[in-house]
Amino acid sequence: MLAETLAHLEAIRGGLFIDATLGLGGHTEAILRASPRNRVIGLDRDAEALELARTRLAEFGDRFEAVHTDYRQIKHQLIEKGIEAVAGILADLGVSSFQFDTLERGFSFRPGESASSAAPLDMRMDRTDRVTAADLVNHLSEGELADVIWEYGEERAARRIARSIVRERAREPITTTAQLADLVARTVHQTGHWRIHPATRTFQALRIVVNSELEGLEGFVAHAVDLLEPDGRLVIITFHSLEDRIIKRAFKFQSGQCVCPPHQPDCRCGAQARVEILTRKVLQPSADEVTQNPRARSAKLRACRKL
User: Fold this and answer.
1) What's the count of helices (H) and strands (E) in the chain, helices before strands?
2) Has this prediction a pTM greater than 0.85?
């Protein structure tokens, strides 16, 4: 949804933008090309992707700056640079194509791959972090595994999968993506061809926990709004329902709408209108875009404007 992102950022008007999840720099490149007056600071927790983005965007000189940091540190990073306000902030919360396609990072798997060619079960976006997906799979209790797979993967067979993992790791450690993917497929008794591999939700759950993906999202939205200049834009793209629910609630709160529990008789959340929501109905990719890029199928875009 590149066109929708640029339109909601109003990138054509010029100014300083923050790409809070730089990846390989595709969004940043488009922002820089939208106006010669644009500058972008790109943040990313993945040092390898950051270096590739620096190379890709070298032609833009000092109009682009890359910073190795987690996007949730955005306020701290800008304060350190003496920046008080920016024209727009973008956060694409999906795993980058670079991470998915670099098999040794352990984010994805190839159905039917041999054990000898399988990737390590890693999934860390920042490889300086200590805990890997293999650590979780081999050390969490059966109950903890079931809770992780159910809560973060929304997987109905979570308890069966957890039981199988514990049984399998008693024989030998589960250390590769192929081991885990095959184990899940056998556990849920799905063989043959799938539209979505039966291990996808389990992999999603482990990845979310390894990278603490849901922690601090509401705080990030609040900090981003703090950093926007009047009429500045915030665009966030999510790729699964858990993220989207958090962002939807955060936008609602920032727009002054009460987010207290429905049964509560009076409002205590203290919501104040700081933004106008620009996407009253969440935006999703067109059928043509999904055909060209199947990974975009679950993307959802929400945008707001600072008052």
Assistant:
1) 13, 7
2) yes
